[in-house]
Design brief:
The protein is an all-alpha fold and 288 residues long. It has helices spanning 2-26, 33-46, 50-66, 71-86, 93-110, 115-126, 131-144, 149-161, 168-178, 185-198, 202-215, 220-233, 236-249, 255-260, 267-283.
């Protein structure tokens, strides 16, 4: 119980301290590598948009220019690459994932105990048709840090791609239990919403996806998933409004791009994904 209390406090303080350190660094005439790193993390936490991802990358690159041995900044760049590819913010998705994986393999070879690097490597594997391997990598991260919230959440995402969406919610509840006010909780809630759509539980999906958007409106994929769920429920007017809100954040998103970038060939997952395509199409997402 003491460990759990300490973990919750640490997760809460970590988020607050990063934001505070980023604000402090903005006022410094000559920020050091760690100052720049904090600013990069703060930008990345603001939302999954091309603008925030580009800003975060600039800060991480500046940090590495000052300190080429900055492991955290290297992981930061890998995180930007992986997140940009995962959110379909770019057409060079494969190369972004490849770059992230190469960076992370380099990091874990130098620092084998870097729990977040293992978890992020698992995330990349999950999104590149290696869900079982990625889940195992996230579990390895949890042996190094059992309170690593992202590892719990990414295992939940991996279960969707393994065709086991019914197991996702439990993993996200664990992440939220450990860090209920986490800056990245909006992504975790989106994972549950997606899982519910795949299970045909559109009413529940809408609840989770609304919670995600309320936590952070700068995640275009959540808007598209919510639009699809609403369309399946027949709430067409709202579905179209939500789809347009997503396109305002990521104007390049199309059903065609989404269809081409499959994270797995699992047949159960692919069957559920057809519901997403149909819902997006009804909601007015461009075919592409």
């Amino acid at each position: 119980m003491q460990d759990e209390i300490v973990s919750k406090l640490a997760n809460t303080l970590d988020t607050q301290l990063i934001a505070a350190e980023a604000r402090r660094a903005e006022r410094l005439p000559n920020p050091d590598a760690m100052d720049l790193y904090f600013q990069g993390v703060a930008r990345a936490n603001m939302g999954v948009t091309p603008h925030y991802m580009a800003q975060a990358r600039v800060f991480f690159e500046k940090a590495i220019a000052l300190d080429p041995g900055s492991i955290d900044a290297l992981v930061g760049i890998a995180n930007v690459d992986a997140t940009t590819a995962a959110a379909l913010l770019t057409d060079d998705r494969a190369s972004r994932f490849s770059a992230a994986e190469a960076t992370l393999n380099n990091v874990v070879s130098m620092v084998p105990q870097h729990a977040f690097a293992h978890a992020l490597l698992g995330f990349v594997q999950i999104l590149t048709n290696r869900a079982a391997q990625g889940i195992a990598e996230c579990r390895q991260a949890l042996t190094l840090n059992r309170n690593l919230t992202n590892a719990h959440a990414w295992i939940g995402l991996g279960k969707i791609y393994c065709g086991r969406s019914e197991e996702t919610e439990a993993h996200i509840h664990e992440a939220l239990r450990l860090s209920p006010r986490d800056d990245l909780a909006f992504r975790w809630m989106m994972f549950v919403g997606i899982a519910k759509v795949y299970l045909g539980a559109d009413d529940e999906a809408v609840v989770w996806l609304r919670r995600s958007i309320e936590a952070n409106r700068n995640q275009p994929m959540t808007h598209f998933q919510l639009a699809a769920a609403l369309a399946q429920l027949g709430a067409l007017d709202e579905a179209r409004v939500i789809a347009q809100a997503g396109l305002a954040i990521n104007p390049g998103f199309t059903i065609g791009r989404y269809r081409l970038n499959l994270p797995t060939d699992n047949p159960t997952y692919l069957a559920g994904r057809e519901r997403i395509y149909e819902g997006m199409r009804i909601a007015g997402v461009p075919e592409g």
